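Cross-posting from the modeling subforum.

Setting up a comparison between two proteins and wanted a second pair of eyes on the formatting. Protein 1 (sequence, then structure tokens):
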Amino acid sequence: MKRFLASLIAACFLFGTGAAATEPQGPTMGQALPDFSLTVPDNSEFRIYLGVEGKTAFSITDIQSEMVIIEIFSMYCPFCQREAPSMNRFFEMVNADPSLKNKIKLIGIGAGNSTAEVEVFRKKYQVPFPLFEDGDFSIHKKIGEVRTPYFIGVRKNTDRTHTVFFSKLGGFESPEKFLNQLLQAAGIRKGGTP
């Protein structure tokens, strides 16, 4: 019962419909994402997808791609639930395009969600990309306590630093438009070239 009440309170904060006096701000474009680490997934396909085999924990810069798209979600967020099929389609579109498949990787972070809650979301919506728990809200706090869903695009630099090139609250019209929006923000033409 305590866990349910805590989740309900968190859900009200994460995707409340009332206007807040000061809206939480996400990562600033042009700056680095605050540092955090994630536990390497048990699923070998996800480890291979991310390029983190042989590690126990990793950071965004360890992911083997030029860009990482991060979805901050909550299993209790009705907007995240509604958006899940579109995110799955977005993932499929990127992986079907040879010019983008190895350039863009996608992960989700469940704000306030335990490992079990993230698994429920993954199974219910058949999410094909790696999802990670943030049960204590530690990552969520570092990125500005944003509402859900929230999307962050990070571009890795050659010196192993990274820069936020996309930061947006809320859903998107279609996976195709979202992909075009991300590519435009990253300065990449449709064929995958700058």
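Protein 2 (same layout):
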Amino acid sequence: MFALARSAVADSVEFLSGAKAEGTVTAIRKAAKEFDIEVKIGTRTLVRTYTFDKVHAVTMKGKRFVLTPLPANPTGAGAAAKGTSVASETGLQTRDQVMRQIDQIGRTPPDWFEATPLNYPQSLDLTWPLKPPNKGWNNQKNIGQYLWDIINPNPSRWRSGIRLVHHEMTVHKQDPELLQRDMKSLGTMYFQLFQDYPRAAFWLLQAKVDKGDVNAVMLGECYWRMGNRQMGLDMLNSSRLPMQAIKLLGDMGETDRAIRLADAFAKGRQPHEAYLLAGDACRAAGRLPQAIAYYQKVLDAPDARNQEYTARYSGRATDSMEAIRLIHRANVAQVADGTYRASSIGYNGNLEVEVKVAGHRVTSVTVTQHREKQFYAALSDTPAKILKKQSIQGIDATSRATITSQAIVNATAKALAKGAP
């Protein structure tokens, strides 16, 4: 195994997929068999954690250490057969490698698929029309409403939800319009619930999603998360970008472009959301005074017709400003042992967290109460990131889950600050 060392020159990582990354190895945890490396993505410097079993070799200070022997097929096909992606956000996968992974993984079902029963209420209307009848909300009849109300908030049902939409594609195989909707729904579920980017991209491509489509941002993020930054940016090369593109541009380090797009949207009917996303992009880039200025713009924007909408966005902006101002007090190194609770405004209302600290380390972050009904994966993913980093800074939002992720980060900051002197 390699020794604890840091190099003044660029270190490098060779992944089992054949991709490579350069940066600086900043920490090695032999007991956990993982290490951190700083990599530069666009204008941002991020820290990525890799386990030894995902890496073929590491070169540090000019010395190369083999961690895991290459498999018989070093191109990633072995991982594809298991339904996993071995790439990272470093942008070092070629276009051919990305498309090959999408094709290989997307054409195969997940390893749990066959063992998952096709289980749904018999009252569901399997014709699933594009527009449900105007007879009120009924999540026991309309599949879209069933997915929203029953599947999304319940991780134990995610697999059966995927199985149901796959079944719907067989029901609609003679109806191109419904089939395209099914494919987009399937891609969205693989993306949001499982962060299964190869399968999400496969079904979005089958649905013929292209630039200008509202789902193009999702496809672009799949490309980026799978390891090709330029492919992600290419999907954002459109004059008809939806507001969701602001978050992705910010995540990819394209902060100035994210701000320009937010400013353009702010001139329309949704200034609160646009300014909030601009603040989030600045915050992710470490431009904290600018982030606070944009959050203040959320508070200063004219009231929308929907007062509840205005109140939620204003509350989120206030929470984010408070979390930024609490950064130093929320440093776990100075937080006394104990259990702390706080809340912040999420996508669908108040979200509460419980944070436990022992020996100046965060030992658990738990979302104890929430009303979220989408982007549900963030509820476990974001606490795990905080736990790993032992910090509220530099936490990447779960895919398309900025609001929920930020609410967890903001509430955690408030909670930790309660234990600071």
